[in-house]
Design goal:
Blueprint lengths: L7 E10 L5 H18 L2 E7 L2 E9 H12 L4 E12 L10 E3 L3 H9 L15 H13 L5
The chain binds flavin mononucleotide.
């Protein structure tokens, strides 16, 4: 199957950092993540604020599931809460092996506030549209490193 016709999935999760991550630790995390993601055709956006993470990951389902299994047991964070996992037609963040940004606490709280709207904690078939709009708007307006 040509790469362009592989079914794409999107995952969104939220987690709590276990400790404050210093810039060097974040850089190390991102460097490794980007190298891995590039090889697996995975893309996305990672937000870090208020000692919390929110990550959007997009790519082929097997690679996505395999990576998420590792991410879930990563000791750098806990309380990993899946907000959304579903097939998508196209990527929202196609150019980023893993975009990274540190939003202001206010903006991050706004985005995570929508988590409460998810129908079932753990898996919402449809993420709140507001969350998605917020993420996209955020990604476009903030300085995102890639
Ligand atoms: C918040 C967070 C986001 C992460 N995102 C990615 C990612 O996008 N890609 C990736 O390969 N690893 C990511 N990791 C790292 C993985 O959890 C794991 O350390 C990595 O896949 C290396 O696994 P390995 O030691 O088995 O090679 C992330 C870790 C954390 C804490």
């Amino acid at each position: 199957m040509p790469a362009s016709s592989v079914p794409l999935f999107r995952l969104v999760y939220h987690s709590q950092a276990t400790h404050l991550l210093r810039p060097a630790a974040l850089t190390a995390l991102l460097e490794k993540a980007r190298a891995h993601n590039q090889g697996q055709w995975l893309t996305g956006l990672l937000l870090y604020a208020e000692n919390q993470f929110m990550q959007v990951l997009e790519g082929p389902e097997p690679a996505l599931t395999a990576l998420y299994a590792k991410i879930k047991v990563d000791p750098r964070h806990r309380e990993v809460q899946t907000l959304h996992f579903a097939p998508v037609e196209r990527r929202a963040f196609p150019d980023w092996r893993m975009g990274f940004a540190r939003p202001s606490p206010e903006k991050f709280r706004q985005a995570t506030g929508f988590l409460n709207l998810a129908a079932t904690p753990g898996l919402a078939a449809h993420p709140p549209r507001e969350l998605w709009e917020q993420l996209r708007e955020f990604a476009q307006s903030e300085q995102v490193s890639r």
